[in-house]
Design a protein that fits this description.
The N terminus is likely disordered. The chain has four domains: about 90 residues, conserved putative lor/sdh protein from methanococcus maripaludis s2 fold, CATH 2.40.420; about 80 residues, Beta Barrel (Elongation Factor Tu (Ef-tu), domain 3), CATH 2.40.30; about 60 residues, OB fold (Dihydrolipoamide Acetyltransferase, E2P) (Beta Barrel); about 60 residues, Orthogonal Bundle (Helix Hairpins). The two termini are about 75 Å apart. It is α+β, with helices and mostly antiparallel strands. Helices cover about 25% and strands about 40% of the residues. The chain is built from three helices and 23 strands.
Length: about 350
Amino acid sequence: MKTALSALAMTGMLLGTLACGHKEAQVEAKVLPKVAVALVAQGSPEGGAWVAGTLQSTRTAMIATRMAAQVKRVPVQEGQRVTAGALLVALGDEDLQGQLKAAETGLAVVEAHHRRILALQAQKASTLSELEQAQAQVAQAQAGVTALKANIAYTQIRAPFSGVVQSRKVNEGDFVGPGMPLLELVGDGEQELVASLSEDEAKGLKTGSRLKFESEGVQGEAQITALAPGGDATSHKGTVRAKVLKPKGLRQGSFARLLVPGLQAAPGLSVPRTALVQRGELTGVFIAKEGHAELRWLSLGEGSGSYLSVRSGLKAGEKVIDQPGSLQDGQPIELSSGVSHGK
């Protein structure tokens, strides 16, 4: 009997403790102050869509050779800055030098013969035909010497403009043939964005139009310099080129996004980075629901400027709170007038 009474007493104490804990939790919940919050629109406010592109220099050259030869020297390295006229690759020219000596000897012989014919012509001892033949032989020999000197000059491959060696494809001792690329040179100065657009996507665009872009977290502005119609047989897309106005000196070959106004973005939801909250490895947003803030964890996709696409965790029409700060799950809220970052 005493045991049963003790059990009942302990049960009562436990229920009392739980009840007190529940009351304390309610008190703590009520302690949270009501805060004013602003909402954000679910979608990019820029009124367009982002198109993938590539950042590159307006002057790019793939340096190649026009002859078969062995690489004798490559005095430059990848990433090295060079000036116009600087030696990039030296090819072996031993065979050409030998041919040049032989050609110069032949030229000297025909020139001596030409002088003798001229002397005989002055004495009326040679015919006009012999003189013309001697003159033709001299001209032919001179052309041969000139051609060999030009070929020898081609063994010294020099930079056509100032820039940076983007890639080096040969080393000393390699054997190269006509048209074989040796290295890639990217020019200093102006940069441009290159992207592919279909005919419908390019509607409303024209040469001279200015577009926003972002690359590696940097935002800038570019001006369209060329707009070609769709010519690709597979994608039926054309090329748009836009000169970078600002900022300058971005990394060549970087991935970039070009904001095309009027172009409809792919269907789906997106939220601004300013609405996101981070808890360890989890990322979420606060939803305004029935006068309280509800923390919602999200699965996010890739970024589009200041916005990130939402793969899961958010439904269309739900009210996302902007700049939540120290807001807590379940905290009472009061909506301020207006929608920040809205359309």
